[in-house]
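Predict the holo structure. Ligand: zinc ion.
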Amino acid sequence: MITRLALAWLHLLALVVGLAGVWARGRALSDSLRHPEDPRAIRRALVGDTWWGIAALAWIATGLWRLLAGTEKSTSYYVASHAFLLKMSLFLVVFALEIWPMTTLMRWRRKKLQPEPRDVGRIEIISYVQCALVAIIALVAVSMARGYGAGAVAPAAPVVTSASGAIDSVLRVADSVSQAPVVVRATPPPSGTDSVTADDIALITHEMAMPLDSIDPTTLHSSFDDARGGGTRAHHALDIMSPRGTPVHSAAAGRVLKLFKSVDGGLMVYAADSSERFVLMYAHLDRYAPALTDSTRLVRGQVIGFVGSTGNASPNAPHLHFAVARNADVKHWSRGNPIDPLPVLVAARLAARTISLR
Ligand SMILES: [Zn+2]
């Protein structure tokens, strides 16, 4: 943990120092062009170049360490990421651009070669170009950390197939909750089936918790099989009565699939669980949590919205309509094989109690 943070800081520090160094080198060289009689400008350029060199070594060393030791994410995650490949390509361009200035400046240092105005001008321009490229790399790195550009190739994802695997996934979730910022995991491939197995139930039971605070699921009644639409369809969800404005928490870790608005459901959130086998749906929301988007990564317990009565809910009876469906491909978030959330929530509550009693 400490190593991880120290490496991330050193990597960032190297980037800042390098940026300042190469910028200073460019500035000093342009001064030298304007005042060729002043030898101090070239000396300042060499100082900038030294810092640029030190920073580059530190940057490469910390970067390789993080990549190969997998201190942040697995090596396969990096290799599969568009953003990572872009970052590496830009880095290679910066490196290739540096070869000629590096050898030329080395000869200036050893006084084997007097700085020629033509070379000074070229290295000045190269320095500024490198400066811009390093700035772009920093932007790409920030995007990467925010989870953009992930998954060019679907990497080996942790598909949980047993109860013990499910517990591991809970531990991973707990881990990601304790370590802000959120660890972005690669998205598992679609399961291709929406039939529910015992493993699926074990998995979702270990993943889920009540979306509303201070409500004991054992006190709720299932409304899963209730008729809706004048008897034309089944409810296939759980209604949890709660005052307007009560925070709605993500019942599982995963990601938002779609913020949707419909005549019946009002403001809705469709979200995938972390195994991407289930779609969790929250309806009749009064409003969304600020900054929630169609691609927000979710940790369990994160506030996603607030209880309301949008859609066809009675204004006098604000409630959360909570539905869970097994899904062959969560891309089709509105399809899926509905399962009753209530027994799952009750089992999850009992399991959590058992763990806390140990
Ligand atoms: Zn309902």
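The longest strand covers residues 278-288. The chain is about 45% helix and 15% strand.
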